[in-house]
């Protein structure tokens, strides 16, 4: 998606350690007009897949998933990283290692919201090592539901996550695929 690539070139900041900061428009301060275009593109890419739910992970994917859900006219579920008093009863759980935070989280979704007849589109802001998507896939599989695919805003194609998820048989559609990036050389897209 050229619009997203242009925005990354203009406003993204590369930090040491393979970190791309897009917090001025994607995952801290959110450009809702850009999210609208992202949602429209995901709707085009996954048209005809009969999506019944969108699933994301707390917290950065929520805004993107909510805007995308408007184009599918379906609810959004987000996997929580901590069990709270608000989630009563049975839950699906999975473990996720965060590339950004360097932590392992237990993610949970209430069984009340994810069912075997659901056709689930996964949405996230980044795909690097694939741990978040693997965790979300496990939640969907635990429910006996179907993963129709994963919509990713930014894929670090030089890291193993995209290949790993595709090898699992999951369709991955990334709007901006980064071939390489460095503080000195900037971003090169696939």
UniProtKB/TrEMBL annotation:
<comment type="similarity">
    <text>Belongs to the purine/pyrimidine phosphoribosyltransferase family. Xpt subfamily.</text>
</comment>
<feature type="domain" description="Phosphoribosyltransferase">
    <location>
        <begin position="43"/>
        <end position="156"/>
    </location>
</feature>
<dbReference type="InterPro" id="IPR010079">
    <property type="entry name" value="Xanthine_PRibTrfase"/>
</dbReference>
<keyword id="KW-0328">Glycosyltransferase</keyword>
<dbReference type="Pfam" id="PF00156">
    <property type="entry name" value="Pribosyltran"/>
</dbReference>
<dbReference type="GO" id="GO:0032265">
    <property type="term" value="P:XMP salvage"/>
</dbReference>
<feature type="binding site">
    <location>
        <position position="27"/>
    </location>
    <ligand>
        <name>xanthine</name>
    </ligand>
</feature>
<keyword id="KW-0808">Transferase</keyword>
<dbReference type="InterPro" id="IPR029057">
    <property type="entry name" value="PRTase-like"/>
</dbReference>
<comment type="pathway">
    <text>Purine metabolism; XMP biosynthesis via salvage pathway; XMP from xanthine: step 1/1.</text>
</comment>
<protein>
    <recommendedName>
        <fullName>Xanthine phosphoribosyltransferase</fullName>
        <ecNumber>2.4.2.22</ecNumber>
    </recommendedName>
</protein>
<dbReference type="GO" id="GO:0006166">
    <property type="term" value="P:purine ribonucleoside salvage"/>
</dbReference>
<keyword id="KW-0660">Purine salvage</keyword>
<keyword id="KW-0963">Cytoplasm</keyword>
<dbReference type="InterPro" id="IPR000836">
    <property type="entry name" value="PRTase_dom"/>
</dbReference>
<dbReference type="GO" id="GO:0000310">
    <property type="term" value="F:xanthine phosphoribosyltransferase activity"/>
</dbReference>
<dbReference type="InterPro" id="IPR050118">
    <property type="entry name" value="Pur/Pyrimidine_PRTase"/>
</dbReference>
<feature type="binding site">
    <location>
        <begin position="128"/>
        <end position="132"/>
    </location>
    <ligand>
        <name>5-phospho-alpha-D-ribose 1-diphosphate</name>
    </ligand>
</feature>
<comment type="function">
    <text>Converts the preformed base xanthine, a product of nucleic acid breakdown, to xanthosine 5'-monophosphate (XMP), so it can be reused for RNA or DNA synthesis.</text>
</comment>
<comment type="subunit">
    <text>Homodimer.</text>
</comment>
<dbReference type="GO" id="GO:0005737">
    <property type="term" value="C:cytoplasm"/>
</dbReference>
<feature type="binding site">
    <location>
        <position position="156"/>
    </location>
    <ligand>
        <name>xanthine</name>
    </ligand>
</feature>
<dbReference type="GO" id="GO:0046110">
    <property type="term" value="P:xanthine metabolic process"/>
</dbReference>
<feature type="binding site">
    <location>
        <position position="20"/>
    </location>
    <ligand>
        <name>xanthine</name>
    </ligand>
</feature>
